[in-house]
Write a structure and sequence with these properties.
By secondary structure, the protein is α/β, with parallel strands linked by helices. It has two domains: 183 residues, 3-Layer(aba) Sandwich (D-Maltodextrin-Binding Protein, domain 2), CATH 3.40.190; 98 residues, Periplasmic binding protein-like II (D-Maltodextrin-Binding Protein, domain 2, 3-Layer(aba) Sandwich), CATH 3.40.190. Helix content is 45%, strand content 18%. It contains 13 helices and eleven strands. Strand 6, helix 8 and strand 7 form a beta-alpha-beta unit. Helix 2 packs across helix 11 and helix 8 crosses helix 13.
């Protein structure tokens, strides 16, 4: 009994004194992407809230697996965290035959921070004005429409494959090394379609260089409320909720995880932070660690079926 009380007191003291030094937040992608942007917005707020620096450490590679492994194998003391897109946590386990870690075993959820819907976009030379018209063209020209992606297993690839399976169409995948070159070829007309993050897509849509059809989120995005959802466009099965969440190495004290989640929720309620996220096509979305764990389990099962049905393998 005494040992239990001492352990509880020690945990409380640890949580109250945390953090006593800078906290590293690993982002397993190159700088400048959507997850990197969301992380930097939140780490600034967390630094102010805790009075210690939360700094971003970009460790890109293998669709996020490299950075995730570094985080998972770090000491579980709250001083190394992982900020990651859900695709790395929920799709990679089905995509890669050999994973360096087991995501749900080696990492523990801290909380979701923001959502980033994908949008179906096309070169304006394509005559379709709606998703149904686009599907009709694809069915009339099987295999002749090319869609770009940021690479095999990326969110842009998985979203397009989900669309292909649900709509029962034959479109051809053209993978690129990142969203930048993929968008460049889409704008120039070398490929016809792409599912991309909302933020980098909208400037091109609003200048007429690209056409937007629908977003993959369950509801319209506040960042572009004029664009319907895929469900509204007639394809309710094409729902792909992109989100950015924070995790910690398994074994990190629950009290620290709770404190971090509390500050993330507080940050998301800030008007300034919300406006910064919306300006880049993201929206604040927060849940408890337990709810995040359930979301990860559900999405992992769902994407395993899509990866198998679409026969997706890493290149």
């Amino acid at each position: 009994m005494l040992g239990t009380l001492l352990a509880m007191c020690s945990a409380v003291v640890l949580a109250q004194s945390y953090p006593s030094k800078p906290v590293r937040v690993i982002v397993p992608y190159p700088p400048g992407g959507g997850a990197d942007f969301v992380t930097r917005v939140f780490t600034k707020t967390l630094s102010d809230a805790f009075g210690q620096q939360f700094f971003v450490d970009n460790r890109a590679g293998a669709n996020g697996n490299i950075g995730a492994e570094i985080a998972a194998k770090s000491p579980p003391n709250g001083y190394t965290l992982l900020s990651v897109a859900n695709t790395t946590v929920t799709i990679n386990p089905s995509l890669y035959r050999q994973m360096p870690i087991e995501m749900t075993r080696d990492l523990t959820p801290v909380g979701i921070m923001a959502g980033q819907p994908n949008v179906l976009i096309a070169h304006p030379a394509l005559p379709a004005r709606t998703v149904k018209e686009l599907v009709a063209i694809a069915r009339a020209r099987p295999g002749q429409l090319d869609y770009a992606s940021a690479g095999t297993g990326s969110s842009s690839h998985i979203a397009a494959e989900l669309f292909r399976v649900v709509a029962k169409i034959d479109i051809t995948h053209v993978p690129y090394k990142g969203n930048g070159p993929a968008m460049a070829d889409l704008i120039s007309g070398h490929v016809q379609l792409m599912f991309n993050n909302l933020a980098p897509s909208m400037p091109q849509v609003r200048t007429g260089k690209l056409r937007a059809y629908a977003v993959t989120s369950e509801k319209r995005s506040d960042a572009a409320p004029e664009i319907p959802t895929m469900a509204e466009a007639g394809y309710p099965g094409v729902v792909f909720n992109l989100w950015v969440g924070m995790l910690a190495p398994t074994g990190t004290p629950a009290e620290i995880v709770t404190r971090l989640n509390t500050e993330i929720v507080k940050a998301a309620q800030s008007r300034e932070l919300r406006e910064r996220l919306l300006a880049e096509g993201s929206e604040p979305v927060t849940v408890s660690p337990s709810r995040m764990a359930e979301v990860v389990r559900q999405e992992t099962g769902r994407w395993a079926k899509i990866v198998k049905a679409a026969n997706i393998t890493p290149q």
